[in-house]
Amino acid sequence: MSTARTPFKRRITAGIGIAALATSALFGSMLPANAADVGNINADTPTSLTIHKHAQPAGPGAEHNGTELETAPDSAGLVGVTFKIEKVTNIDLASSEGWAATVGLTPEGVKDSLEFVDEAPTGAGGILTFDGLQQAVYLVTETGAGDNNVAFAAKPFLVTLPLPNKEDNTWIYDVHVYPKNSLASITKDVNDSAATSLGDTVNWKIAAKVPNKSADAPLTKFEITDQLDPRLTFQNATATLASGTAIVEPTDYTVDASSGTVKVVFTAEGLAKFATDETVNVALATTVTTLTGDSGIITNNATVFTNENSFTSDTAQTNWGKVIIRKTDSVDQTKNLKGAEFQIYATEADAKAGNNALSVTSNGVKSAVATSGENGIVTIDGLRATVNGTDEAITYWLVETKAPTGYTISTDASKTKPQSFTVDSAIDTTVDITIKNAQTPPFMLPLTGGSGTAMFMMVGLGILAVAGGVAMRKRSTRRTSQA
């Protein structure tokens, strides 16, 4: 038996058929050529998470979808940065409710529902892979910087395994992420070439790399500090930017050395002037005022503070030492001679010509002339020992310019033959130099009973003979007159 259909029923049936065809065409057009890559999640497919750890580039970088980049980032891969992954236990990705719960989820919202899975450092190229992971939501946290000067650690982040690929509606089972770190660094060098003795200036250069900021890691603090060795006295400090942008004190930065620690602190105005990949240079001038202890090695380093992190430079040093000159008799060296005057020169040519004598601090007085005291000693309170804190020793030349009264200038420390010496600061801060002086030669006196005495006797006898002759002549003249 056939059933007759009314026009209204036929129209409804046709509409449903058209809608079905349209729906089929719509979803059919979304299917890729490989049906295995789309559709429902394959619960049996293993998942993994690979972390590529790099330094923060100059720019913000492109948004990433979880697949491995064909070209690695230009910035350096960071080895030794540690990451921890934890599974979120209250979300089941095998259900639609679980996936719905991931919408708007934050790391703060899962802190009470975490199960530790693994923790490891990045390897070569800054790469770390966690294999064989269950399909779940994971919290990834950076827990250690290793040997890297990480100024801003990567923020904790959530990731689902598998991860939806919004570009083609597929599922990514092996997810790649590229968290970045902003790096800071600081170096310190010394230039003591202008210094010779106590009271002279030693210059230090501090270079601090400014970390590249990002939207997640703004730079709110940048400060350089330098705790001076007690033997150094602060003169001044000036900051400049490697980019060439002008900065001035105190608008852009302030300098404070009142506590013995030099602090260069950037203001909000100064922070705003930092260019990408900026470096702050600080020129610090100090004076070596005294030498104490058993070493003349003066070390110094600097620290940079970026937000809540700090990094310290390698140690720079300037090497100094004391010199003692002992003035003694050349025959009896227990006899100390006062009043000898000395000058010190930087070159042998200057010493021989008597030009450019160095001004040194001797017995507390700074002068180009050092004089031996009652004990015959000249103490040079401090001379620079090496070039810029290296092992390259500096040679000085000693000349005695005036001998003690009654003595002659030593032939071992004269303009003709200056005495060279170096200063030892690594083991003993005192260099002991002994300069011997001979007495001025006396006149030659006649020897008792010698030819000198015989001569005097002959002269005396001659005088007596003359006197006798004169007496006899007078007597003869007297007799003649009487006759």
UniProtKB/TrEMBL annotation:
Keywords: Membrane, Signal, Transmembrane, Transmembrane helix. Residues 46-182 form the Gram-positive pilin subunit D1 N-terminal domain. Residues 321-434 form the SpaA-like prealbumin fold domain. The keyword tRNA processing does not apply. Residues 194-319 form the Sgo0707-like N2 domain. Coiled coil: none annotated. Residues 1-35 form the signal peptide. This is Fimbrial isopeptide formation D2 family protein/LPXTG-motif cell wall-anchored protein. It comes from Arthrobacter stackebrandtii.
